[in-house]
Amino acid sequence: MERTIFHCDLNNFYASVECLHHPEYRNIPIAVGGDVEKRHGIILAKNMLAKKAGVTTGEALWQAKLKCPDLTLVKPNFSQYLRFSGLVRKIYAEYSDRIESFGIDEVWIDVTEIVGRYASPRALADEIRNRIREEVGITASIGVSFNKVFAKLGSDYKKPDATTVITRENMKEIVFPLPVEDLLYVGRKTTVKMHQLGIYTIGDCARYDVAILRRKFGKWGEYIWTFANGLENSPVLKEGREPMVKSVGNSTTAPRDLKNLDDVRIVCYVLSESVAARLREAGLRCMTVAVSIRDNDLEGCVRQMKLPCPSDLSDEIAKAAMTLFQANVDFQKPLRSIGVKAADLCVGEVPLQLSIFEDQEKREENLALEKTIDGIRRRFGAQSIQRLRMLEDTLLSGFNPKQEHVIFPESYFKG
Q1: Which of its termini does the chain have fewer beta carbons within 10 Å around, N or C?
Q2: How many CB atoms lie within 10 A of CB 215?
Q3: Catalytic residue list
């Protein structure tokens, strides 16, 4: 039986929630972003009026203001966004138990088992969209297809509040003319390399010699070719088999430029302690640590590495992050912002395969210590107990990323 996969994307999610709670925002351009005075100046989401003015997700607030001088900036309210995400997810759960999150604002749903009860897959998707609009007050776009990659292309194809169906019969007509960067996980640098090969559209990629792509990009080149040809067949994970949040991370724009590894190390440990504490609160561990880097020209990159075993310890996360910073930063340009993210999450209670190369007793002692520190900070404040390293530069260490943490909508990573 041919699978029917939905990809549901909540339109302009953060901005939509703000407009729902503040009617005065509905007819003016608004964007949800950070605090200019603290240099947390990044657009997280924008409404349609701001989008029409050229405002893009991920750009600096000052850049957005140049494009749209009358732009109203709204500070994010993450607890509200999580609440609305949960309300929408309850609607999804009435149709399937195979719901896989892709960030706070997007999910895949496998509706293969129930789609036959409806006149068409489009009819089912339209019902879900209508319920989200009428019961929650925000809108969603839904892509319908036979695999996850094409379903996601469908949800991006027409917005807002639309359904797009991509079948084996119309895939070349709809998908092949799209820019290659629209494919899942094809980022800026991969796009540049694709263009160098003369690949500008998904169709170009689908028709390209897969052997050449494999030589150019390694195994990932074959994955991209598979995506372009509609051959991706990964399952939608069952409800409860994966965490709703796919990663836990913090980033910060420093109060001054970071000019050397000592500067980076101070901020890195503040961020890593926050990430580890949030993992423990959620009962999660991570298998991958990633860092994001932006210099003072706003050029940047993301790098990641696997851990030897799942972890929620700040020392292990920080050491992995510093390994990545050391390998990827030469300080020809000072850094303006950095981030630390824990990914490949697993539930903390899951039994672990112990390593003979790790001192498990020492790890348990460190975990007990960090949990004690969590309790002290909850009672007396984030600055009540600190590493000595933080006192080397209190300007760099004097922030609380756990309290001011940023939950990025998935759209943030597309820009």
Answers
A1: N
A2: 10
A3: 106
